[in-house]
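Entry:
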Amino acid sequence: MALLLCLVCLTAALAQGCLHCHSNFSKKFSFYRQHVNFKSWWVGDIPVSGALLTDWSDDTMKELHLAIPAEITREKLDQVATAVYQMMDQLYQGKMYFPGYFPNELRNIFREQVHLIQNAIIESRIDCQHHCGIFQYETISCNNCTDSHVACFGYNCESSQQWESAVQGLLSYINNWHKQDTSMSLVSPALRCLEPPHLANLTLEDAAECLKQH
């Protein structure tokens, strides 16, 4: 089990969607929208497919349904984008399709893309378990495509000394975070259980409960 503290630094902007943050998104989806007219024998498929492509980014954010912030590393975003563009390019290589086929395939690719993004974001958080104490990694905010970072707390400590150091580092991190708001005390009552006098007999369950209370 890893307790994740999602402390994300962002600037306000309009929602864009994860794949939209990729450098080739505009070029790729511009091509897809421009050539949608040639992909179905039935004229009714054209506006449906066009709407799917136009709303791709906003619909992605609506479908993610994550309990954690949508922050993805550049490496994983590249992997997702490569997979999605590959599926889309293969779909566009075909000639005109029979009625209903093309928009259905677009929906399938869209759903697969959502799963890829969800997995990529969650995998990065799970990787936190391989660290001891505070760990940070650089990400991109799927909400607004700005650079951000995620700070998490990993429980993979090999000794009691490492564990004590990790918890002290966590307390220091939270104290520094609280200093940004002068209306808050340096250590909230809920976090006093992480102060040095209480660390000797502190268990993982105790630490988790302490942080949940905070």
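Strands lie at 71-72, 132-141, 147-155.
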